[in-house]
C-alpha cells in the first residue's frame, strides 16, 4: 500500500500499476484534468505539479516536478498539490498576476506555469527573488503562443505579494504545519505496490539491508530513483516494466558530506540536493547544473541515475572524470571502488556486476593551483541535451601545465578522456601555442559521429574551441563576458 496527501486529503492505494505515472493517475482515475500532457517526456512542463517531502527537521520541502515521468508509487509519505488545489479562495497571487499581466492565451500550458511559480513563491516567501530565479523556475515550461515577457512580469508581481489561506484550504500546507501533522500519521517504512498478485511490482526499501535483500531475491528487477530517464521507456516506448526497486528512500544513498579530502555524494542525491555543496568546492559546476534539464528535472533526477544510464552525452560523467572521481559500488560481495573513467566499457555498457548498484561518488576537493572549466554546447540554453560537453581540470604552476585531465561527452560512445591532448598540454605553457597543440591532438583522441545534434566535424572543431575558451577565461585581464561565460 502507498499513502499520501492529495490537495489536503489522505489517499490510500493498496493496488495500482507500478508503471502508472502521477499524470495518468490524476487524469484517468481522479479526473483532475487541470494537469496536462504535452510531451510525456518531461520537456514541456504542462504536467507540472508540486510535491512536498518531509525532511529530517520535521519540515516539508516543496518542489515542482514533471508528473508525466514521475511514478505514482514514488508519492508514498509525501504531499501532492495540483492546480485544482487553488480553485478555493483565496486565489494565489500567481493566478491573479497571470490574469492581470495577460500571461495566458490558449491556456494549455498555464496550469503548469502557475504551479512552477507557486513553488517558487512558497520557497521564497520571505524574500523577493531576482529575475534569474524566476527564469530558472520557468526554464522547464514551454509556451507556444503567449511569449514569456508577460509570464515573467506575472512572476515579478506575484513574488512580492503575501498569501494567507485558511487552515482548511487544500494548499494550506504551503504556509503552515497542517501537512506536517497529516503526513506524520503515514508509516515511513518500506512499501510494496502491485496491481494484482503476480503482476508488475514496485518495492521501495528504506535501508541498505532491505535493498541488498531485494537485489538478491530479484536480480532482474530494474532500479529506479527519480525516473527522469527510465520512465521514458513507459511513456515513449510503451514498455511495461515488470519489477521496479526504488532507491530514493534509502538514507545512505542520499547523503552528501565531506570525508577525508573528498565530497561523498550518494547515488540517490538529486541534482538540486548536491548542487550547492559541489559548486562551493568547484564553482564551474554551478552554471553547468543550471543547464542540466530544467528545475523540474533537477528536483527529481539523481547523480547515480545519470551515471548508471551510461549515455555518451550525460552531463555529469565528463567533469567527474576530469576531477578523477571514484565510484563506490555495492553488492553481494560488499563495496568496491573504481575510477569513474573505468566504469564505462562501451555504449550503454558499464562495469556493474549482477546484484550491484552505485552507492556513492567520491569527488576530490580542490588542491592548490587547480582550476576546473566546464562548457556545455547545446542548441537551446535551457532544458536541452548536450552536443558536446568539455570538462578540463588544470594544475598550473608559474604558467606551466604541471597536470591536466581533459574529458569530453558527445565525442565517443562513452564519456572519455582526451589523452593525446593531455599529453600535448602536460609540461607546456598555458598559452596560445599550448592550447593550439592540444586542440590539434584531439583528432587522435576522437572520431565523433554525426547525428541530429551536430556533425562530426563540428564536434571536433568545437571541442578544440572549448580549450581556447578555457584559456581566455583563465586570463585575469580578459573581462569580456561573452568570452568567459559558461553559456554556449
UniProtKB/TrEMBL annotation:
The record, for CDD domains, names: fer2
Q: Pfam families of this UniProt entry?
A: CO_deh_flav_C, FAD_binding_5, Fer2_2
Q: Does the keyword Flavoprotein apply?
A: yes
Key words, A-Z: FAD, Flavoprotein, Iron, Metal-binding, Oxidoreductase
Q: In terms of domain of life, where is this protein from?
A: Bacteria
Stated name of the protein: Xanthine dehydrogenase small subunit
Q: Which NCBIfam families does the UniProt record give? A: xanthine_xdhA
Listed Gene3D superfamilies: 3.10.20.30, 3.30.465.10, [2Fe-2S]-binding domain, CO dehydrogenase flavoprotein, C-terminal domain, Uridine Diphospho-n-acetylenolpyruvylglucosamine Reductase, domain 2
Domain annotation FAD-binding PCMH-type: ranges: 195-368
Identify the residues that the record assigns to the 2Fe-2S ferredoxin-type domain, covering every copy.
Answer: 1-86
Its source organism is: Marinobacter salinisoli
**Record has Flavoprotein as a keyword:** yes
So what EC number does this one have?
Answer: 1.17.1.4
Amino acid at each position: 500500500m502507498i499513502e499520501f496527501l492529495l490537495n489536503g486529503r489522505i489517499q490510500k492505494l493498496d493496488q495500482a500499476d507500478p508503471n502508472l505515472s502521477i499524470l495518468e493517475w490524476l487524469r484517468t482515475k481522479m479526473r483532475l484534468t487541470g494537469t496536462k500532457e504535452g510531451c510525456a517526456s518531461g520537456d514541456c512542463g504542462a504536467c507540472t505539479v508540486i510535491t512536498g517531502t518531509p525532511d529530517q527537521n520535521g519540515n516539508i520541502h516543496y518542489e515542482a516536478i514533471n508528473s508525466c515521468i514521475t511514478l505514482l508509487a514514488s508519492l508514498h509519505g509525501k504531499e501532492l498539490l495540483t492546480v485544482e488545489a487553488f480553485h478555493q479562495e483565496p486565489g494565489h497571487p500567481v493566478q491573479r498576476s497571470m490574469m492581470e499581466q495577460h500571461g495566458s492565451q490558449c491556456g494549455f500550458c498555464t496550469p503548469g506555469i502557475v504551479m512552477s511559480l507557486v513553488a517558487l513563491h512558497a520557497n521564497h516567501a520571505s524574500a523577493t527573488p531576482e529575475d534569474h530565479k524566476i527564469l530558472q523556475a520557468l526554464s522547464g515550461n514551454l509556451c507556444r503562443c503567449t511569449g514569456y515577457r508577460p509570464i515573467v512580469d506575472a512572476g515579478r508581481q506575484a513574488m512580492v505579494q503575501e498569501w494567507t489561506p485558511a487552515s482548511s484550504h487544500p494548499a494550506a500546507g504551503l504556509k503552515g504545519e497542517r501537512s506536517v501533522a497529516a503526513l506524520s500519521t503515514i508509516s515511513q517504512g518500506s512499501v510494496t505496490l502491485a496491481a494484482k498478485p503476480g503482476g508488475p511490482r514496485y518495492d521501495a526499501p528504506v535501508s541498505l539491508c532491505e535493498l541488498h535483500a531485494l537485489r538478491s531475491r530479484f536480480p532482474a528487477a530494474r532500479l529506479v530513483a527519480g525516473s527522469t530517464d527510465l520512465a521514458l521507456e513507459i511513456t515513449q516506448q510503451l514498455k511495461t516494466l515488470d519489477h521496479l526497486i526504488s532507491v530514493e528512500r534509502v538514507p545512505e544513498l542520499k547523503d552528501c558530506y565531506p570525508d577525508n579530502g573528498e565530497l561523498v555524494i550518494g547515488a540517490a542525491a538529486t541534482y538540486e540536493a548536491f548542487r550547492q555543496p559541489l559548486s562551493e568546492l568547484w564553482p564551474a559546476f554551478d552554471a553547468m547544473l543550471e543547464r542540466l534539464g530544467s528545475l523540474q528535472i533537477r528536483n527529481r533526477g539523481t547523480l547515480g541515475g545519470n551515471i548508471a544510464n551510461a549515455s555518451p552525452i550525460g552531463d555529469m560523467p565528463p567533469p567527474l572524470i576530469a576531477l578523477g572521481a571514484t565510484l563506490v559500488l555495492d553488492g553481494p560481495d560488499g563495496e568496491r571502488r573504481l575510477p569513474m573513467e573505468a566504469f564505462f566499457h562501451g555504449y550503454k555498457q558499464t562495469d556493474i556486476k549482477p546484484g550491484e548498484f552505485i552507492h556513492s561518488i567520491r569527488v576530490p576537493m580542490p588542491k592548490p593551483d587547480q582550476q576546473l572549466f566546464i562548457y556545455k554546447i547545446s542548441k537551446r540554453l535551457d532544458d536541452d541535451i548536450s552536443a558536446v560537453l568539455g570538462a578540463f581540470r588544470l594544475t598550473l604552476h608559474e604558467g606551466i601545465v604541471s597536470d591536466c585531465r581533459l574529458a569530453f561527452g558527445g565525442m565517443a560512445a562513452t564519456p572519455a578522456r582526451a589523452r593525446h591532448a593531455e599529453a600535448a598540454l602536460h609540461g607546456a605553457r598555458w598559452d596560445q601555442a599550448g592550447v593550439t597543440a592540444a586542440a590539434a591532438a584531439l583528432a587522435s583522441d576522437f572520431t565523433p559521429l554525426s547525428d541530429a545534434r551536430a556533425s562530426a566535424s563540428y564536434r571536433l572543431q568545437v571541442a578544440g574551441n572549448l580549450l581556447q575558451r578555457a584559456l581566455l577565461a583563465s586570463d585575469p585581464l580578459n573581462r569580456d563576458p561573452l568570452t568567459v561565460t559558461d553559456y554556449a
